[in-house]
Amino acid sequence: MKNKIMTAEEAIAGIKDGSSIMVGGFMACGTPEILIDALVEKGAKDLTIICNDAGVPGRGVGKLITSGQVKTLIASHVGLNPEVAQRMNTEDPREKLECILVPQGTLAERIRAYGAGLGGFLTPTGVGTIVAEGKQVINAGGKDYLLEEPLKADFALLRGSVTDKFGNTTYNGTTRTFNPMMATAADYVIVGACEIVEIGDIDPNNVVTSGIFVDAIVGGEKPWQI
Amino acid sequence: MKNKIMTAEEAIAGIKDGSSIMVGGFMACGTPEILIDALVEKGAKDLTIICNDAGVPGRGVGKLITSGQVKTLIASHVGLNPEVAQRMNTEDPREKLECILVPQGTLAERIRAYGAGLGGFLTPTGVGTIVAEGKQVINAGGKDYLLEEPLKADFALLRGSVTDKFGNTTYNGTTRTFNPMMATAADYVIVGACEIVEIGDIDPNNVVTSGIFVDAIVGGEKPWQI
Amino acid sequence: MADLKARIATRVAKELKDGDVVNLGIGLPTKVANYLPGDVHIILQSENGIMGMGPAAEEGKEDVDIINAGAQYVTINIGAMYFDSATSFGIIRGGHVDATVLGALQVDKHGNLANWIVPGKMVSGMGGAMDLVVGAKKVIISMLHTQKGAHKILDECTLPYTAIKVVDMIVTEMGVMEVTDEGIVLKELHPDFTLDEIKEATGCRLIISPDLKPMED
Amino acid sequence: MADLKARIATRVAKELKDGDVVNLGIGLPTKVANYLPGDVHIILQSENGIMGMGPAAEEGKEDVDIINAGAQYVTINIGAMYFDSATSFGIIRGGHVDATVLGALQVDKHGNLANWIVPGKMVSGMGGAMDLVVGAKKVIISMLHTQKGAHKILDECTLPYTAIKVVDMIVTEMGVMEVTDEGIVLKELHPDFTLDEIKEATGCRLIISPDLKPMED
After folding, report:
1. For residue D30, how many other CB atoms are within 10 A of its CB?
2. Per-residue pLDDT reduced to its tens digit, C77-103
C-alpha cells in the first residue's frame, strides 16, 4: 500500500497560485492549523478558499486572510473576522478580497452534491432573497425552490481527530462540521491528524471518512490552546 | 421525558389499511423482524411498502408479500423473492401487487432528500432509460440529469443494533443501509432494537440516528438465525 | 436594558414545550434557555453539529473540540450526539427543529425577515440563518421593539430579506405579536406601555387581538 | 464453461491496479477477486455499505449482520468501514469507484448497456446497477460472448437500457474489446478462436486493432 504519511510541506507541494482549496472547520474548530501554517509559509497566492467562515485573525483561515493569499473566499459567515471587511473594501487591487456568501446549509449541501455525483439540488433556502439572483427557481410540489449547483475544489485541508495509516478518519466533538463532505469533493485531500493509528485500530462502525478519499496524512495537529 | 419504550403491538397501533411504510434493511439484513411480525399479526391491508428490496419469502418484507398486505411496493430489486413476480402477474385484483422499481442510489437519495427538506435533486442515474419516463431532464454543466423527487412515508420501521432510551441508535455492520435516511423521512418512526441501553451509554461521536427522530422503541429484536 | 432582555427571554421561554428541539441564535436568544420552567426540558440543536447542547463550559474546563455556533466553548447534555454540517442542515431544513429563536433587523407584516446584511455597512454573512428560518416549524423573533427609536416592525422590509413569509411570532419588551395572513396581531401588551405607545413604535398597522392579554415579566 | 469463466475473470483481473476501489457484480464478476496478481490489492466496495469487503464468511463463522449485495455472509478486511446507502451511492455516483465489473444481457457499439430487465419475462429490478455504471470511472462488462448462440454485442440494444454510453471494455471468452467513439475495437483475440469466428459471434462490426494481441488464459 502506498505510504500516505508525509510532512505538511510535502503534502501541500501541489498547491499553486490560483488553486482552489476547501478548508474544514467552523470558526477554526476542526481546521488543520498545521496545514494552514505550511500554506502561509509556502506563500501561494490568489487562492480561492472554500470554508464555512473566515476564522478569526491569527487562527484558521484567518491566517490566510492576514497573509493576503486569498483572492476569493466562499463562506457563509465572515463577521467574526474584521479583516475580511477591510480587505473587501480596500482600493488596493493586490489586497482586494472577493467574498461570496452562501447560506451554511446550501454550502454544506453543494459540497456534498459534488462528492456524491449529483448535478444539483432544490433547496427552499434563499428563495425571494438576493441569494436567488441568477439562479433557476423550480416549483416542485407547489413550492418554490432554488436550483443550487455542486461545488468542488482542487484541494481539501481537513482536520482528523484520529486517522489510521490508510486515511480512515474520525472527528471528535464539533470538529466534524464540513470535513466529511470536503473529503469527497476535492481532487487531492490532505488530513492534518491529531493522532495517527494503525490500520484496523478504528472500529469499522465508527469510521466517518473512508481512507479512499485521503491522499496525504500529516501528523502533529494539536488541540487549540485556549 | 416521554417514555418511548413499548410493545411491538403498541408501536404499530397507528398503522392502518392504506398506510405507507418505509422498512429498513437490505435483503432483510437490517430489517426489524419483530415489527414485521407484529404487522402481519395486525393484518393491515393495502399497504405501500418502501424498502430496498422484497426480502425473501419468510423473511423481512417477504412476510408481508406472502400475507398479501402489500398493494404497492417501491423497491430497487425484487429478484430474490419469486413471489413478487407471481403477485405482479396475477389476474386476481385482491392479490395484485404493483411494483415500482427505483434505482438503489436514487431511492436512498430520495428518502434523504425528504428528510433534509430538499425539493429534489439532479442525478445522472437513469438518463436515457425507462426510469426517465415522465421525469424532467435538466442540463447542468453540459450534462443531462433527471430531476428526482423526495420520498416520504407515514411510518418507518427500523432495526437498531444499540438504541438508548431516548432513541439514539447505532447500526452494526451492514444493517445500516436505508435505516438512517428512513428515520428522517417518516411521520412516525419505530425502532426494533437488538439492545436497549441507558441514555448516555452510546458515545456522542458514534450515534448514527438521533433520538429526536424516534417515536417508539421496541426491544427484543434478535439476530437472524442462519 | 438587561431587564428588558430578561423580560423578552422569559416570555419566549414560555413558547417552548417539553421535548422541543430548539435552535437559539446568538445573543438575546441564547438567554432563553436560562428562563425555562422547571418542568420543561428542551433539546438544543447547534448548527455546527450538536443535538443536545448543554450550558457554556466552565472556565478552565473547556474542551477545545466542543464549541457552539457562536464559537463559545460549551458542554453537551447526556444523550447528546455530534454530526457533520450536511446532516445538521438536513435536520434544520427538513423541519425537525420545532422552534428557532433569532434576532432581527427588520420584520414586516408578511412575515418577511431581514437580519443578515446592511448593504454598504455590515458585511457578516447569513451563516445558518436563512436555512433555520425556512426550515424550523416555528420562527420566533426576539428583539427590542425599535432600534434607537427607528421602526423595526414594518409594512415592508427595506433591508435585503433573510427569507420571505417565515416569521410566526415576534416578542419584544413591549408585547407579543403573531404574524397572520391578515397582518400582525398584537396578542399581549406589557403593562409598562399603552396601546398608543406600541402602535407608535410599530411601522405597520397592528391588529389588536380581541382577547388581548397583559405580557408578564 | 467453468474454464471459460475463469479465463474471463483472469483477464478482467489484469485491468485492476493496486489500490483500486472496485465494485464487483454478482456471479462471474465476483470471481475476479480470486485471480488478482499477488502484488495487486484492491479495495472492494459493496453497495449495501462496505468499503474493504473481504472473502465470503466460512461456514459456521458467519456474522449475520454482515452481508454483501448478493445477500451472502461475508467478512471484512482490516481497515474496512461500514456506511449507509445514501453514503454508499454518493461514493458510487461521485466517481470514487475506480472500476465496476458487471454482466450484461446486451451491449452495443455506442457503449449502451442492457442488463436489468426482459420485458414480460424477467422482473428483477436494477438494484444498484444503474448508479454503478453511470458513476464508476471504468465499466467492464464480463460475460460469455453469446447467449446460446444469440448475439449479445450489437449495433443497438433491443432490451431496455441500464444506461447509455457507459461501457468502456468488454471481456468475453473470445476476446477483449474496447468501446470507442468509432465503435467496438477488438484488442485481444483468444487463440481458441479465429477472427472470423469472433466476427460471426458479434452483432456489430468489430474494428480490429492494428496491434491485435492474443488473449492469455
Report:
1. 18
2. 999 999 999 999 999 999 999 999 999
Three-state secondary-structure class, residue D45: strand
In angstroms, the CA A37 to CA A33 distance is 6
Phi, psi torsion values for D5, nearest 5 degrees? -65, -40
Across residues A124-149, what is the average pLDDT? 97
Residue A148: predicted pLDDT: 98
Give pLDDT tens digits for A40-64. Answer: 999 999 999 999 999 989 999 999 9
| Fold of the domain built from segment(s) D2-214 | Glutaconate Coenzyme A-transferase (3.40.1080)
Say yes or no for a CB contact (<8 Å) between B140 and A124: no
Cβ count within 10 A of residue B28: 30
Side chain identity at residue B86, one-letter code: Q
Task: Give CB contacts under 8 A, 24+ apart, made by D15-19.
Answer: D15/D99, D15/D138, D15/D140, D15/D169, D15/D171, D16/D40, D16/D42, D16/D98, D16/D99, D17/D42, D17/D98, D18/A1, D18/D42, D19/A1, D19/A2, D19/D43
Topology given in CATH for the domain delimited by B8-219: Glutaconate Coenzyme A-transferase (3.40.1080)
CA angle in degrees (0–180, nearest 5) for A50-A55-A56: 150
State how far residue D209 is from chain B, nearest Cα, in angstroms. Answer: 30
* Interface test with chain A among C61, C83, C116, C130, by most A beta carbons within 10 Å: C130
- CA–CA gap between residue C113 and residue C161 (Å, rounded): 6
Chain B contact probe: residue of C43, C51, C66, C81 with most B CBs at under 10 A: C81
The set of chains that have 3 or more CB pairs under 8 A with C is A, B
Whether this model's ipTM surpasses 0.95 comes out as: yes
Q: What's the one-letter identity of residue B15? A: I
Distance from C-alpha of C6 to C-alpha of C69, rounded to nearest angstrom:
22
Give A-chain residues touching C103 at CB under 8 angstroms. none
**Percent of chain D residues topping a pLDDT of 70:** 99
Decide if B123 and A141 are in contact by the 8 Å CB cutoff: no
Spatial CA neighbour of D128 closest among D23, D209, D210, D44: D23
- φ, ψ for residue B193 (rounded to 5)? -105, 135
